[in-house]
Amino acid sequence: MSIIDTIRSAFAALSANKLRSSLTMLGIIIGVSAVITLMAVGQGSQKGVTESIRGLGSNLLFIRPGQSQASNVQAAVYGGQALTLVDEDAYAVNDPEKFPYVEGVAPQIDFEGALIAGAENTRTTIIGTTPDYPYVRDFYVANGQFISDNDVTRKGLVAVLGHRVAETLFGDKNPLGKSVRLAVGPGGMITFNFRIIGVMEPKGATATGDEDDLMFIPLPTMQARIPFLRHPQGLSNVFQITVKVRDRDDFDQAEKEIAALLRERHNVDEDDFVILSQSDVATLKAAETEISQTLWAAMAAIAGISLVVGGIGIMNIMLVSVTERIREIGIRKAVGATRADILTQFLIEALMVTMAGGLIGVVLGVALSTFADGRTILEQSVRAEVSALAVILAFSVSAAIGLFFGIYPAFNASRLNPIEALRHE
Amino acid sequence: MVKLTDIIKVYLAGDVPVPALRGINLQIEEGEFLAIMGHSGSGKSTLLNILGCLDKPSGGTYDLDGLTVSDLDEEQLAVIRNQKIGFVFQSFNLLRRLPAVEQVELPLLYRKVPNRRRLAVQALTELGLADRLAHRPPQLSGGEQQRVAIARCLVTSPSLILADEPTGALDTATGHDIMRIFQRLNEERAITVVLVTHEREIADYAHRVVRLQDGRIVGDERNSSPNRPPVAGGPSLGGDGEDSRA
Asked: Are A335 and B94 within 8 A, CB to CB?
């Protein structure tokens, strides 16, 4: 029997039992679509990590306060930040004579605050920093301007909004020149009015958080106006100093020399600061996401098990189908069907069920992944990327399942004795 | 031409060997119309199965058209069945879900010949079923179903038609119609027909009657005046007898 005739007759046999065929297919459909979706999400989360690290900017060193010696009260206020770095440290690092490889330095303090503009309000991260920040972080103003040297000198009450904050507070309206009220401290008891001078370009999430959900103000403004952010010794405390280095090859030297400078300035033997390179951050972030990736992989594996279960379902149905059609097999053999003909016929039926199921599963899985991509599910923003490999893999696995679980029933059918088969009621 | 020499068939009922055929010697010439008669258990169905290459003898040789088919394996026997043999069964043995025309195409499908549909329609038309091409077995009367089954073996131009109690499930009038078809196929096309029956009346259509008892041939006689049904002058093989709707 030619292969086209076999496929045609398998199709007729399957459509004679539509409900049964579709239920059998369902197991494969669910398995394949689950595998594709979960693999897509796993792949997507990995890609998200890579992108977020790239989004930090390039050739960066991060100086952070070291082991916290802060009291519980301080920890409560500063979120566990030690108070060992001050803005003077940053200005000292930004010395082209001493450190020719330093291209820019941006100290920063960040804290949570509430913003109110007209009837709208939102909570966001307020970052106090200096005019170098956009260049260092490779993150620029889209509309208006960033904090200027003048704003820093006169401790101006000016603010630059993150893309999403601007959208939340002002919608389609142009926020430039408008004022926004910042409320900080317990119960938002201290409030300031800031004039908006710029809106940042959209950037999305990076390894340090959502870069669209923040507001920048001049660092000295923050230090001068918000008293409890002051260093206990009256110095101007900062939470992080970002240093942009000219070249990747300068990293080791920069790290060593900056560390020496800070030790000298702080007059300590044991470092009270930490210098992280971008790759350190990447490693930390990767370790964090590795757990979730392992989780996705495990879930994909479980989905794979459901494929096997679907395969067993197919075997079961094929065995029933062979038993029901013993007479048919006898008739076919009587008119000249060989064992190979019968084997092929039942194998093709099993294959058609799994391959059709695989195909529908792929379509469903791709649709689900596309739907999930970019959405927030269970407070987690989900990235999903369907790879061609996953599609090919899932589809060929479903075909392989058809072959594997179809061969035994088909073999049974082909081995039937024609006389007994014809006598079967 | 069929030639059976010392054919033995032994079944195993559990561990006990049960002889079904105990040395059959039989020669059937081309174009013969032969009836095999015997009580149940006489071995007539076993003999028919061996003739039809559905079963292999335990001993002896079977030559069909010069080919020793008793030496062939199962796959080769399937090919012989497809090329040379047509079966007609008491219970028709049609596939429930196929329309008549596809039933008739079935052997051609396994033979991989082109023009299947045309040949099938031709065979069905010859048997007076031109208006029943798309009907499925449940929509056909018993006589019509048996005629579809005959068309199914006719379509391959077999050298041997084997009919196992072909009228057993039909009423008398329809049974005679079916027998007349066999008779015409035999006379007009010189196809060898071997018929198994236990009804004298049916066996009388044949030119030769072989009697079987306990696995042996106990009688082999010529019938010089085969039964002629009273319904005469039918225009085709299809006959125009009154079919009872089964």
From this structure: no
